[in-house]
Design goal:
Lysophospholipid acyltransferase family protein, about 15% strand, 7-stranded mixed β-sheet, Glycerol-3-phosphate (1)-acyltransferase, lipid biosynthesis, acyltransferase, two-stranded antiparallel ribbon, about 325 residues, alpha/beta, 9 strands
Length: about 325
Amino acid sequence: MVFDAPPATHSHSWMPSSPCGSGCIEPIDKVGTARMYARLAGMLGLVLSFPVFTAATPKSRRENLQRRYAKAALGCLGMRLRIVDNRPAEQAATAGFADPGSPVLVVTGHIGWSDVVALAAVQPVSFVARADMLEWPVLGKLARLTRVIPIERANLRELPGVVGQVAQRLADGNRIALFPEGTTWCGRAYGSMRPAMFQAAIDSATPVQPVRLRYLDRHGTPCTVPGFVGEDTFADSAERVLRSKGMVVEIVLEPLEQPGSDRRELARRCEAAVRGTDRSRHGVLDTEWIEAGATRVQDPSLDRRQDEVVAATAW
């Protein structure tokens, strides 16, 4: 497939990693082969036409165009979007995460590549994403069009520069979305939110929008099909999603968190908001396992505790 890309590799012990793999993926109802290829054709049409229509659309109308494209893409993936706004009236935006011209840092857990599409369908945002995405065929061009901020996770020395870029974009009034876990999980188990990128919200005095994102099957049960985990390539994951039937992606907007002055405390507050009653107990000394739905995986933070002490100033 022309959109294929390799799974992420973890060359250092302090790099974010997930123990989730193929054993986490539980099948759901599927569509037939003809329907799958029709969906694929629809996605190809959207991907190829998006740059053309973006260039031809006045800047003042591009956000609406991007939102419509993202919603159409979810339809081609066989997903319905459900938005739940738990924010008080004084925080609720007229359209999505924030009112036009109002900066906000959007944070959520990371399950798979479709997370980006789902968030964009709520309101267009720029993303912090793995640097090699810019080199992917076709998708790399789309990443540039949406002003992705690349991060090279294998190089800690570049992290302060990325944080500075995010802070500047926020100070300029932009909306930025990031996945503070630093890697993908299956959606039933999850990692802790690394605090480094939250410094951008503090430096720019920007509020943070915690988002609870999950995928459900047609029975309303949490679904792991979109999980981009283990040895998955993009082609593997895309075929699995395109064959699925009846999925709903649910976006829950929790009350805004003010940045404060401590990025670790801000990360903890946002993690609590994103996880709700199911949040992980990472960092608690007597916790060795993450229990979430049918998935039970060992908490990798325990094995990496010493490494994370060394890298604490960065992450």
